[in-house]
Amino acid sequence: QVQLVESGGGLVQSGGSLRLSCAASGFTFSAYSMNWYRQSPGKEHEYVATISSTGGTTNYADSVKGRFTISRDNAKNMLLLQMNSLKPEDTAVYYCHGWYLWGQGTQVTVSS
């Protein structure tokens, strides 16, 4: 089945950490750059981070730079997002994206 499935979201206090995972299946994961996006209620999709197909190049939105780290394991077809120093404004549904696929999203809630 061709899909992306996120996991790892939850409720965390401000300053805490979470690690999101995105399991890819049904396509050649290692051939594509991958992205994380997020969406808060009433807001547009917001770009978070990108990683190249080999993992050698990454890019981040200014709002998460220095706090979030995107990585991938091509042997396991897995995309990761390590989120540290979380803030209430990071509360959103987080989506992984690659090729033409979007995952179903995982909720991250940061309490103040």
List the helices and strands and how they pair.
Layout: E1 3-7, E2 10-13, E3 18-25, E4 34-39, E5 46-51, E6 58-60, E7 68-73, E8 78-83, E9 92-98, E10 101-102, E11 106-111
Parallel strand pairs: 2-11
Antiparallel strand pairs: 1-3, 3-8, 4-5, 4-9, 5-6, 7-8, 9-10, 9-11
Strand content: over 45%
Query: What is the ordering of alpha helices and beta strands?
Result: EEEEEEEEEEE
Approximate helicity band: under 10%
The average pLDDT is 97
Which overall shape is indicated by the principal axes computed on the Cα atoms? Answer: globular
Tally the beta strands. Answer: 11
Structural class based on helices, strands and sheet pairing: mainly beta
Largest sheet: 7 strands, mixed
Distance between the termini: 39 Å
Total number of helices:
0
Low-confidence stretches: none
Radius of gyration: 13 Å
Outline the structure in words.
With 112 residues, the chain is an all-beta fold. The protein is built from no helices and 11 strands. It starts with a strand and ends with a strand.
Task: Produce a short descriptive summary.
This protein is 0% helix and 53% strand.
Which key phrases capture this entry?
seven-stranded mixed β-sheet; four-stranded antiparallel β-sheet; 0% helix; 112 residues; mainly beta; globular
